[in-house]
Amino acid sequence: xxxxxxxxxxxxxxxxCHVAFLDMHENILQLLQNVELVxxxxxxxxxxxxxxxxxxxxxxxxxxxxxxxxxxxxxRKAKILVALGSCAxxxxxxxxxxxxxxxxxxxxxxxxxxTVIKGVIPRENVPEVVGVSPIFRYVKVDFxxxxxxxxxxxxxxxxxxxxxGEKPTLPTKTVCDECPLGPPRKKPSKLRRIFExxxxxxxxxxxxxxxxxxxxxxxxxxxxxxxxxxxxGCRGPASKILDQGAAMxxxxxxxxxxxxxxxxxxxxxAYFYRYSFASSLIEDLIRKTKVxxx
Amino acid sequence: MLEKAASGLGVNLKVEYVxxxxxCAWVCGSLKEATDKAKLMIAAAIEKAKSLGKEKVxxxxxxxxxxxxxGGPAGIQASLDxxxxxxxxxxxxxxxxxxxLASLLHRTFSINECNCAICVKSSxxxxxxxxxxxxxxxxxxxxxxKRYPWGFKVKIIKKPKYINYDRCTNCxxxxxxxxxxxxxxxxxxxxxxxxIYIPLPYVTPPRYIIDPNHCLHFTENxxxxxxxxxxxxxxxxxQKAKEVEVEVGAIIVATGSEEFNPSxxxxxxxxxxxxxxxxxxxxxxMDPLGPTGGRLVRVSDxxxxxxxxxxxxxxxxxxxxxxxxxxxxxxxxxxxxxxIKTEYIPEAEITILYKDIRTYxxxxxxxxxxxxxxxxxxxxxxxxxxxxxxxxxxxxxxxDSLGKTGTIxxxxxxxxxxxxxxxxxxxxxxxLNIELDEYGFFKELDEKVSNIETKVPGIFICGTCxxxxxxxxxxxxxxxxxxxxALYVISYLEKKLTPPILDEEFCAKCGLCVIxxxxxxxxxxxxxxxxxxxxxxxxxxxxxxxxxxxxxxxNNTNELLLRQIKAIIDEAKALRKRVVIALCxxxxxxxxxxxxxxxxxxxxxxxxPITIPCLGIISITHILEALNYxxxxxxxxxxxxxxxxxxxxxxxAKYKVELIRRVFEELGLFPEKVNIVNAPATMTxxxxxxxxxxxxxxxxx
Lengths: 294, 701
Prior knowledge:
The complex is a heterodimer of chains A (294) and B (701). Chain A has helices at 16-22, 27-34, 65-77, 86-90, 102-112, 152-163, 204-207, 223-226, 244-255, 265-272, 281-293, and strands spanning 4-10, 35-39, 53-59, 62-64, 78-84, 129-133, 143-145.
């Protein structure tokens, strides 16, 4: 059997997903028996994406017009295009900058950040900066591997299954399914912050932490709650959830309104929308309204 | 009806209806608008009809047993009526004996000569005691009541009486030897009793009981005399409070009322001077089995009172205490005046100070008899003060209706006090989840047409716990309550089942639905939440709180609702019409939309109603998705916040709307597009106030 060609393309990202791919360690040898890695800026010196690739993993979301070009090229050359990691799937943490308009974000980054002295927004020979966006807004995506970073084991299984021509699946349930702390026995009564140490073996949501477990896709083995840290939702919304943050907000409004009495999006977005703001319904509404105004 | 007819023909027909007349035709401005709106409404209904499944109907037999709370005349009458129809009755009384306030009376008022109180204070209680269908639980308290489809599970705490009745023969030796003397509350403090006692000689059940608040064994841990003298070893100090649980189909509350404590109003001098007593104390003094053996004498010196003054409306018809009229006191005072004149002290001079005489109905004859035949003096006026002069005789100072001040010397002053709610009725109301009126009496469902029912189906009220009334009125109401309770327990509960259905593929067993269910109908099992179909009311709170949409209400799934919303918007786009999606709860919301139709109140035709079981089913995602898909606004219409038919639905929906509006405001979007109307079904005004502010440019462009 001929080995399938695999490429990893990087857009706006910190390369973490790429590292998660390499984090397979010796398992990578098993993977390479089935696929041939033809393009990866971390391990191969191949500048351009080869012309015909069976599987392209796209790491990172879209931030510049350059990203858009690369993404479209990858789509043209790929038989199967897979979004790797939460930036590619949902926009990821950079997506939060969509809460602010583009110019003020740029101004902040290039002029006002404490480490910058007399900074200016670069204008020459740089691609145009656009709103942060998950890749599905520009091209058709065949499969998503969420996570920040994604689980190495999951990446491998999915690539192998795609290479065999099968249709891989993701867990349909939420993190609570894998979490040993739950279920909650009563409604949370007051809000707790992360620096207050949690009680052992008690549901973190019940204790009043904003644990995103109930709205986040399972598959990570509930690593964070196991360590006493509330889930931050890195694996994005579970199968039937349209909007991760809104779902959490809705749940809390029903069971513990007093914990979110003072809710405002800019302060709480890091809890509710840390990874999925750029693909949320609210962000959609903002974009549509802006288009209308223009 | 259609469903029934079809099933009669053997066809399984599913019906979804659209109320074109009230929700569309009568409320639209023009024919074109109405036609367009009707099209949109039908589009949503078609979407729903596509996925309708048949609803299960459950029939539950109610428990054929009734709990009666309170052993006064009302409770006794209700218990006897129910028991004689063959129902099992649990009669719970908080004091050691039944009879209530009526057991303290010497005579009741009546226009014929048959006015002795034996029937209410002795023979009827005895009938209760002997009736095999009635389980008499005296000296007990209700601690918890849980509602079920078949009725109520009631926890009753049996307070210890410290006596083993299997052994006790009522010989009375213990009481004779008991060293502790306390004021007898059953004689209204006019006599003394022992710490081990029978309340009054004629009470039911005629049992000795130890009062642990006064018994030296309990207060000082020093005395064991009764235990030592009892020849039958019937004293048992080791008894503890016991909890029993009974299951009943209905509850009758007949806890009665209390005589107003006049010492809270200083001008009457009650408590300060011994010879000022209340009408109930007067009854005790006249009772042959009372503290004086039936001699009417002054409490202070045992002399015959020759000048008696009765003061009416003590603690009632008084803006400072209770504004209501206590109904019984005018006739009670006149009855006692007649009794004194005809049987006790014919030479006595009796004066009655009154505000208005309200001897309604045929009791007017008693008033005429007292005033014209027996020479009882009536003065219309207000008491200024009751005081003692230097010689130690009482004087009643008053201002009459003409503004003239006068004083009347009195040997005995009798206060006709109001009936006031019992102290513990507030606690009981909380346990039963029924309401109290502004004075603390139990509140009926409707004072005109259903003054025995309460807001909880299956709980009935009767007697003076609902408001002051006389004995015969009380008995009439008690019999009525018994009849209603009987009808209630023999009927079936027919319940349309709309339980949530679980999609195990998506359920993570996170348990959020379990803790959020207002009816505790869900329990978490290994396969996910399981539903108690009887407890579930189908409000959909679980469906809304489930983040992964794994639990859904039959025929009202989240996906269906989204499909309906999208169907409306698609159709509207085709008609080039703007839409505001109005999600109306089945209770107040739907009825409010109907009411708008009845009143022909025009509102913007862009509002397209979708009926859902309860606003609790709505989630923030629904609202965002509707706006995202192209709706020009989302309007939630539901019950008032405190009166949601499903406990929490209206409130949580309000919270969600507030959150979305706040987020939109923060982002500079359109908070004015998301609105909620929480109003009872008839408050169409509130609906119009809210909807007129929704910014929708006129459609049909």
